[in-house]
Amino acid sequence: MDYLARESADLSAELWNELDEAVVGTLKNHLVSRRFMKIAGPFGPGTTGIVVDGVDKQEAVGDGIARITGRSAIEIPLFYEDFCILGRDMEHARQSGRPLDLAPAIRAAKAAAKREDELILLGNKTLGTQGLNTAKGAFKVKKGDWNKDEAGYADVVKAVSYFVEKGYLGRYALVVSSELYMALQHLVSNTGLLEIDRIKKLIGDNVFVYPGFGGTKAVMVCPEPENMDIAVGLDFSVGYAELVDFNHHFRIMETAALRIKDPAAIVVFE
Prior knowledge:
This protein has 270 residues and is an alpha+beta fold. The protein contains six helices and 14 strands.
């Protein structure tokens, strides 16, 4: 079965390759969460749910019955963005030998990247899901004024100290709003270093900007797969939707869900 319905469209393999390259290239440039989160899967487009094992998972046995506690099931929803390429534009590109304008596909890919990052970092009210910045059970740090010398660095030190004390060893990633990122671009007195450079010396280059945060939000995680991951059924793919008025309609699709296995591996700066 051709799930993406590509065989229903009389389009060349070369065009499909161009669309795939444009969409995937755009996604790689704009996705934030996938730069530090591990992917579980893909499990296939037919996967609609998956289990999340918490740190307290165990098998309870008694009265001839064994059941697993500390395990929950979550939905893997489908997310999509549509775009259209005019038939006349395709014909002009074919006749002239000039490249086809793929701006509609690129804009849709940007929107798809934004949608996934919203799911991972902020959660989704419609689905009733939590994001990294809204996770219940996360450790909270009262944020200082990151415009002042060493305030941002001191808050990150608190987060690292917490992780080490609790045994969360491995990679650390800090995600900040645009406003906080700019606040970290000042020179620290008597060091010759930018504030952000001091932070990177502590946790590596895993400092990311997420404009969708707005304001002065920030979150830091230990994103090892035993703590959290992104469960993917269908990874980002371009499918053919329909031909309407001789214009070609496409859909970028993915099925994905955030699995927070241990919320204590998250630090939210309030």
